[in-house]
Amino acid sequence: MPLRLRLTLAFAAIMALVVGGLGTFVYLRLAAELDQAIAAELGASTAQLAVVAREEADELGKPGENELVERGEKYDQFLTPSGGLVDASPLARKVQLLDPRRLARVSAGEEVTFDRPEDAGLSERLRVRAKRVAAGDRPLVAVVAVSLLEHDEGLSSLAALLLLGGPVAVLLASAAGYGLATAALRPVEAMRRRAAAISPSEPGKRLPVPRPRDEVRRLGETLNEMLARQEEAFERERRFVADASHELRTPLAVLKAEVDLALRRSRSPEELVDALRSAREETDRLARLAEDLLVIARSDQGRLPVRPEPVELASVLTHLSNRFAPRFEEGGRDLTIDVDGLVVSADRLRLEQAVGNLMDNALRHGRGRVRLWADEDGEDRVRVHVSDDGPGFSADFLPSAFERFTRADPARSRGGTGLGLAIVEAIARAHGGAVRAERGEGGGADVWIALPRVRPPRPSRETVEV
């Protein structure tokens, strides 16, 4: 069932309850007001008959003009306690207003009020009140009655008006509610149609947003922001796949070319060994690329496994300097370490991988001395720096330094996969840390990774009493 129809039905149900409740209240209120007016009229008539009985006791029942005759449009009677008619107004002379049972109750001193229905001798409903009065030294029963014709006609007219006008009002209000719901949901329907037409092949399309600054507009703006994030993620994944395909294609092409050349004609043992060495280098490059891609994929899924533990930076950096020593000697580069007993909370293998990537980056793209050092950032974290004396990063490259397959050298002439800094960022993020690349104070590149610091426990003090 459409939402606007459900809203209309709910609105109609609420309106029906409101109209029904209001109509019932008005009806009961009018009935109460009419009953109060009739009760006041009966009370006044009963009091007048009591005065007549007291002041004109000797005239009651005698022919001629008296108070009851003057009340020709009223239903008034004087009865004896046994039910005999003493006197009555013209309208009440041939009508029995009080039955024996109620007569006995009134004769006993009780005042009764009741509604008398229509019958053969009476063409309208009456409301009757009977009360015992004194006429000189004899007791009488004064009976007064008021017609309920206007009372009944008024309530009947009101009931007919409510029964006719109530449903009409509900229908009109429901139609107006349906129109309002349709108008309110029209922007949502427009957004739905546009969303159904948006496809990945047509980037940049957005949902139409209504002008009024209401909830629907905020919904449209939020969905457009989500579409922008999705497009950005899709474009990032597309570039990732394209770059990964390019990176995989290059070593595979080289590997295939080496094998084809080795098989094309007879080769000497030395030439076959050279071909196998070249193939091994390309295979190693493929293995590194596959491992890097796996780290990036796990990081994107938030599942890069790390096992933080207290790690001494001096031990890690010394181990890495020994591992990279042959490459530094081969390139004629110097390496210095400046760490003063700092301890961080990190996964040792992942930390070695991150710092090793930074050292490899400094060897490939930097010049001069490479320096490994650490400092504190004031947020209870330790920053591990890898800096060199080379030309440093260009201002255009710094904002995208940690993006995947991004190289400071666009010609890609120095090897590498373009994933080194991206992996460093992924490892830092997995540890709850941060990374940054910047130009050093004296020139060159300075890349650091910040990790939580572990402070050694304070020595306990023992008090010895002598």
Rg for CA atoms: 52 Å
Low-pLDDT ranges: 460-466
**How many domain modules?**
3
Query: What fraction strand?
Result: 15-25%
Order of strands, widest sheet: 2-1-5-4-3
Reading off the top of the CATH hierarchy, the class of the largest domain is best stated as: Alpha Beta
Which structural class do the helices and strands define? Answer: alpha+beta
Textual characterization of the structure:
This protein is of the alpha+beta class and 466 residues long. Helix 1 packs antiparallel against helix 4, helix 5 runs antiparallel to helix 6 and helix 7 packs parallel to helix 8. Strand 11 and strand 12 form a beta hairpin. It has nine helices and twelve strands. The C terminus is likely disordered.
List keywords for this structure.
466 residues; alpha+beta; Helix Hairpins; Heat Shock Protein 90; five-stranded antiparallel beta sheet; 9 helices; 16% strand; rod-shaped
Layout of strands and helices, then pairs:
Layout: H1 3-55, H2 67-70, E1 75-79, E2 85-88, H3 100-107, E3 112-116, E4 126-135, E5 138-147, H4 149-197, H5 215-264, H6 269-300, E6 309-312, H7 313-331, E7 335-338, E8 343-346, H8 348-365, E9 370-376, E10 381-388, H9 420-430, E11 434-439, E12 445-452
Parallel strand pairs: 7-9
Antiparallel strand pairs: 1-2, 1-5, 3-4, 4-5, 6-8, 9-10, 10-12, 11-12
Q: What does this entry show, briefly?
A:
The protein is α+β, with helices and mostly antiparallel strands and 466 residues long. It has helices spanning 3-55, 67-70, 100-107, 149-197, 215-264, 269-300, 313-331, 348-365, 420-430; strands spanning 75-79, 85-88, 112-116, 126-135, 138-147, 309-312, 335-338, 343-346, 370-376, 381-388, 434-439, 445-452. It has a 5-stranded antiparallel sheet, sandwiched between helices. A 5-stranded mixed sheet has the order 7-9-10-12-11, with helices on one face.
